[in-house]
Amino acid sequence: MKVIILALIGFALLVVSLFFLLKDFSRFIWRRTKNVKFPNQFIDFGEHLVTIFTVCCITAMGFLFYKFSIGLIAYLFADNLTSFFILMRGVFTSRIELQNPLSPENLLSGLLLTPALQFTTIYLIFRAIRTFMYSVNNHYKSSTYSEGHVLYFGFVSVLLFILLEIVFFSQKIPGISGIAHFTYLSVSKIAYLCYFLTIAHLHLLKYEHFATSLPTYFQLNRFQNAILFTPWKIILLTYSIGIILHFPFYTGIQFAENNWLVLVSYLFVCGIFYLTLKVFLAKGYNYMGVVLIAESPDYLAPSTKLFEQKTEMKVLAGLGIIALLLLIIKTKLFFFILFFIGMSLIGYLVFHSITYFTGLAYSVVRSYRLKTQLPPMQGSTIKEYLTITVYGTAKAISPIFAFIFFIIMVFSLFPKKLEHKNESYINSVFDTENNPLYLETTDNNDCIPVAYNEIPSFFLKCLYLQEDRSFINQNTFFPSNFFKTSNWHGFSFALYYRMITGGGGSNLNNQLLKNIAFPKTFPQDVQRKFAETLAAYQLSLQFSTDEIVTLYLNNVSFNGGDGHKGVLHASLYTFGLPIHELNELEMLYLLSTLKHSSMFKTGNGWIDYKEAALYVEDIKTALISQSELWYKQNRLSKKELAMLKIQDLRIANKPYRSICQTTTKEFLKKVMRDAEFKGITCQSSISTANQQHISDAVKKFDTQFKSFKKVQGCDLYSSALVIDVKTGNVIAHYGSEGVTDLTQFAGGNPVGSIIKPFVLLEMLEAGFKFDNISLYDGQIIGKLTPNNYSGHFSNEYVGINEILGRSLNAPMVNIRQVTDPLTLYKSVEEHFAHMNISTDNFLNLDDAKRKREHEINYPLGSRNMTLYEIAQAYQTLFNGGKYLQLSVYSSAFDPLTNETKKFNQSQRQVYNNDNADLIATALNNAMQARGTGTHIKSMLPQDITFYVKTSTSDEAKHGYTVIYDGEILIVTYVSYGRIENEHLSLGVIPIPFESGGRSAGVLAADIYNELK
Hints:
The chain is of the alpha+beta class. Among the domains are: about 1-35 and about 90-305, no CATH class; about 690-1010, 3-Layer(aba) Sandwich (Beta-lactamase), CATH 3.40.710. It has 34 helices and 22 strands. Strands 8, 9, 10, 19, 20, 21 and 22 form a seven-stranded antiparallel beta sheet that branches. A five-stranded mixed beta sheet has the order 2-1-7-16-17, covered by helices on one side. Strand 9 and strand 10 form a beta hairpin. Helix 1 (about 1-20) crosses helix 7 (about 175-205), helix 5 packs across helix 10 (about 230-250) and helix 25 (about 690-705) runs antiparallel to helix 34. The two termini are about 65 Å apart. The relative contact order is 0.07.
């Protein structure tokens, strides 16, 4: 209401200024106003009221034509619904994101086409007024209306049009910016009067005595004579003046942050305004008032039509076909549009009749008071007058109405798409229980997007109660309550009702578009609301309510907009909990922070959101009070109210920190980076509980190896992966202390005995039988043979069970006795490639010069692999030879498409099922007598069968252990490392006990016990 009052004050000052600029023309208007006398004919005082009412209706229809035409221009230039909204508003400023007044499309649509459209609108209003008046004159064969009437009421119409425009663009702005805004706004609207005077002048030139009178009253130089009597020149000049007057307001220079810049530009612009208006109005069109006072033309010629009648009929028929098409395709929208048309028509007929009969009643009362006699007024005569005036009005505005209807058809049939690319959406990862594991950090007001099914139903219920009670029913055929309906196909009756009575009223559709188009600053004017309505209508046509509310909650700011964008980010910041873990009272508080303010209102005053944790009782009292009001309105159940009363607020108000260590976050981030995700919320197969278990296991391991943590200036590093073999999901991860994730570190490290099962498996794949494989455990004369870990040979032929159980080296090298080893190793590499295990860059099995080196080193694990690749290989082995691509993610939510997608894991049968099972079963021998896993056997449950492989690389620089219990696979790694030149070097000294089983094996056992 305050803004409207300011607008009225600004309009009053503008009218006073115009009367000083157009003294003689104003005198003509004033005389016309004073000469309105009590009529003594049948066309009585009711005629004057009907004329005024009709002029107001024509003005309103012209105003709607202008606004919808601006919408059509925005529609043609916009790439999407957001840019449509911005272009539709028509004011641009560099202070607001997504706007640039100097961009080509904005210059063309906002600066050049808008004044042209204003010119056209004033012409249509002028033409409509003349059409109405000529229809009445023609019917009664009289001169009821003259050209003077057209000019008089046209001037009134333009003033009313200017008033509406000022109200539409007025907003509460403090300081010099506010003064500049109202000045630029008011002066830019004077252009409408310039257009009107030009149109009136061109019409009056058709009268010979008017044209000949101009030189009589004025001395015209050659330039003035050329302008005034050449229509295209005066139209072009007036259009140019309109652009000049519109330019400062269009560019939004009043919104500049520097007040001195605003002040200097304001003084300069005011000087330009003064010179332009003084020359163009005071020394230009003021002459029209002199001529009109002297000549007073009474004859009213027929209205000149823009198109022939046949052309108009074709256009109207075409629009009718489009309407029929809409009826067939989108029945609901037809009824939506028909509702407004019907309401407008009924309203017009009712008020038209009331206006006329009010005039009649006034005439009768005044006649009685003055003791005069009115001529007889028969009912048929009254009916005839009402009919011809309604017919004349319809004839005057039908082309305007048809065009508006056509624009609505375009919006309805081909709505602009909301192609929202929110750069503030960040990647995030949630565990199996929807608890955050990883949140990408940025310098912006970032948002962690959520899916609709992740939002609690009570939260949504209270959101609708607070913000938009008609939201769910917005696509119904008819609105439930005219004044209280907040959302009907995006249109809010409550919005415009409350704008008059005070208060808000924007529905969720409006708020979503506002937050996207103006993420930082919200211009508070009616024009923005009107643009919002047209955009919200198109939004409702392309998105379901679920999609709209999801987008809304992922874009709105909570806690007074203090950097907590999106409902999930706000929930984590406010309570340290994801939205699904909040109780109902906490949901209610979070919703209350939607208000664009930094304070929360309680019965004891205002509380800053940052200090809310200190006043939880006061806040709870205020929330319960609101809940009780909803309960009395039958919005909440008795059970819900009772539940709210016993709950507590766990307000934290601090940045959220997930339980995951940095290395796990890096692990999760790397997978997302490789997949090129953006703004995606991923569901991980890792759980917070498992991460806590693995963290506890690492702490236990560190205690057990306390004396080995630092040796010779080196730190003992460790890492681990836990895999669900049947699904291929990573269910727990530990990447080491610090920032380097050792599960995927560089190109990996030498794997040692880890590779032995796969070399033996390859022999089975080549056709060897499990029971027939017997390899010599000893030195072969003339051949270099490495020692076993035990330091001696049995000098016997041994089978797979003993080789893997004791992790013997000599038999693995002596494979050369039964087959070509390099061919066998190449087959191993081929199968590794089928499991997407990267090639070792230092390994070249085709290099003939290194043949002897490879024969000895490859089967003992000189090949480099990361822990992740080792886990992948063993998942395939323990899964019957079936490869399932290891995955840390099960699904991902894309907020831009509102779709939740399942991750498709690559899978293939890499090894023969029986062969893989034979090798996997043989790994149980590591837990038998003399096996490499016997020292950890006592640490594990005795009633479970374990399949174990331990490994120590050459010179005991790296240690590994693999444990499988038939369900989960645990792979661990230990090594000493040192930071050198900001780079981590691993394998710098031998590991504890120089045994992977006695170091990494202990970590694996600790992890298993914590998990199980």
